[in-house]
Amino acid sequence: MMSISLIFLLIGCCFAAEKLASYNVDPSETSVSGISSGGYFATQVQVAFSASIKGAGIVAGGPYNCGGQMSYTNCMYTSSPPITESISNTKSWSGNKIDDAKNLAKHKVYMISGTSDSTVGVSVMTQLYKYYSTDGQFIPDSNVVFKKDLKSGHTFPTDFDSAGNNGCGSTSSPYISNCGFDGARAILEHIYGPLQPRNNGALSGKFIEFDQGEFIASAKVNGMSTSAWVYVPKSCTDGATCKLHIAYHGCVQSYEKIGDKFV
């Protein structure tokens, strides 16, 4: 059994952020995930930096480079955006504009699409699945899980209730819903293997808001928040080797919009 020792949550906030400390992170154990625009972003990062990423969890996202080819509205709703150019661009950019696409063959991907999601529907996610596996053949089909039987709206599925969460079929703020399914655990276990039991009590680690300016010049200009959150377990603070998972929120899930609910 293993635990994910370090999780970045790249979301904005409004309080004083601190300089991020150094931790004993194993770079080869880095993965990404995201919902909606964050799902698209996670795929972009996964493909462009495939040598540094081992897997991805995509909730209501879509094909790589989709928005670079057409209006973003054609990459949403119940459309089926073409992927021929996405595949050819990945191959032609491989090893020059992006990391070698052969790295993707080692990745594990967990995809979640709700049957009631009309914002980024199953048809869009199906095109992403085809890009990864059947048509693009970048990732072995055995490494890709496509869960599309949840009766969920445009939301991140959980298996517990929290203040402000919605019913599973709802598509409204904070876009987090109790669907009787632990989406975060499913993603992490597919990428990393069995996890330790979830701790529903007091946490031994701590959440830290840190300044992203050290890593991203002109964050706002580049579409990023000036600060982000990281959860650091006590074992990681004490020097144990950590794994790193980076989670990207959707368009209206920033700290300014929903507080710490995504955290």
UniProtKB/TrEMBL annotation:
<keyword id="KW-0732">Signal</keyword>
<dbReference type="InterPro" id="IPR029058">
    <property type="entry name" value="AB_hydrolase_fold"/>
</dbReference>
<feature type="signal peptide">
    <location>
        <begin position="1"/>
        <end position="16"/>
    </location>
</feature>
<protein>
    <submittedName>
        <fullName>Uncharacterized protein</fullName>
    </submittedName>
</protein>
